[in-house]
């Protein structure tokens, strides 16, 4: 899975647009982040200026699947 495919899946399922940051910039709000950095992909939750629960993946597919599994469990990121 690619990041673009993940974005499409999330939008189709009704995720809030502010729930995930796919940019290389530092997030400004509490949100999940998927950042390509130094040859890998970092997945973390950004809260109060800190990166929490950082997971690093070497390939995009594994990172996307991991983030999707986290988001599927968190009902606060979806429209009701």
| Helical content band | 25-40%
Supply the number of helical segments. 2
Rg is 12 Å
The main sheet comes to: 4 strands, mixed
SSE string: HEEEEH
Tell me the strand order in the biggest sheet: 1-2-3-4
The helix-and-strand class reads alpha+beta
β-strand percent reads: 25-35%
Name the shape in a single word.
Answer: globular
Low-confidence stretches: none
Number of strands: 4
Please tell me the overall pLDDT: 91
**Overall domain count:** 1
Main traits of this protein?
2 helices, four-stranded mixed sheet, globular, single chain, 80 residues, alpha+beta
Plain-language structure description:
The protein has 80 residues and is of the alpha+beta class. It has one domain (3-77). It contains two helices and four strands, in the order αββββα. A four-stranded mixed sheet has the order 1-2-3-4, with helices on one face. Strand 3 (40-47) and strand 4 form a beta hairpin. The chain is globular. The protein starts with a helix and ends in a 7-residue tail after the last helix.
